[in-house]
Amino acid sequence: MDPQFWHTRWQTNQIGFHEGAPNALLTGHFAALGLTPPGRVFVPLCGKSHDMDWLRAQGFEVLGAELSPLAAAQFFAERGLTPETTASGAHQRLSAAGVTIFVGDLFDLTAPQLGPIDALYDRGAIVALPPTLRARYAPQLLALTSAAPQLVIAFAYDQSKLSGPPFSVTEDELRAHYSATHTLTLAHSYEVPGGMKGACPATESAWLLTPRCA
Question: Candidates 3.30.70.920, 3.40.50.150, 3.30.420.40, 3.20.20.100; correct CATH number of 3-8+20-211?
């Protein structure tokens, strides 16, 4: 998917994927990963998500990756924060109040830039990418986080009825990406009221990914 697609969505405020409060599946199931503060949580394709506020309020250090400079700037501005901004490889690193956002292409981010990661929270990230990019995304996350535990929130629906994003990411696909390194456990699943954009039935599910070596 052309990065300009996402730049345009932020520039035109077409951000229906942005939730105005912490996600209920996050607040209900993140504790099941067993991470205790202080720990470092990575949030890929983070936007200006309120989920990062919630994670920080639990005592975690939050590190996000976001393509859009506008999204990252809005995150800090809407909280009255002036981030420290430095260059970090191919990215700009914005940091304030326990939250750091690396602005740039996720696929250019490296593990040394992030440092050690204790858990990963994926809400709206894997489902934002078409299949060809998802095939690159999963290995990149494993490399960035040394296969840390994950909470993944995904939609599943008939992709032939509607083009993404959000794209349909089924249990079979999640297992294909992660079962070699993680044990996958379904924490919760429910039918999306009104279906996916009113076009077809859809389920939203929270998956706990536990490293097999643990």
Answer: 3.40.50.150
- Cα distance from N-terminal residue to C-terminal residue, the chain: 35
Domain ranges of the chain: 3-8+20-211
pLDDT on residue 139: 97
Along the chain (214 residues), what's the average pLDDT of each consecutive run of 10 residues? 68 63 95 95 95 97 96 95 96 97 96 97 94 96 97 96 92 97 97 92 97 78
State residue 4's pLDDT score.
74
pTM over 0.90: yes
